[in-house]
Amino acid sequence: xxxxxxxxxxxxxxxxxxxxxxxxxxxxxxxxxxxxxxxxxxxxxxxxxxxxxxxxxxxxxxxxxxxxxxxxxxxxxxxxxxxxxxxxxxxxxxxxxxxxxxxxxxxxxxxxxxxxxxxxxxxxxxxxxxxxxxxxxxxxxxxxxxxxxxxxxxxxxxxxxxxxxxxxxxxxx
Length: 173
Description:
The chain is an all-alpha fold. Helix content is 80%, strand content 0%. The chain has one domain (3-172). It contains four helices and no strands.
């Protein structure tokens, strides 16, 4: 794949995840406001709704599962960098290539494969909350697992392309 073609795909994947992150970041604000409202209603007026409480859990899941690819994109994921920080850019690119090929992408493909039946059975049943008055969208919540794997693998591909270009540039210097 030419570097122009690789840059094209990498830029489009990065842009997709940036827009997704912008959308998901609003869920954090809504989650805080909703939690505040739940507390005020519960302790101030002795009112509460299970669906309202579950919606906070749904937003929390969306923030983490759909925001993970953006975290990878901006290089804010957890990394034990005792040695990594001292590496040259070329060696950092090699470590990141190996990490994407040996860990990130295989683990996400495994999660996708293992959770497929779990999510599809939830869709077959149109699974609902077990709580009376809960949200009837458990099947949609479980679908976030698949979306997580897809977005992480897409961003992993973008990172792989970016690191291959960085490695080649380090090689030519």
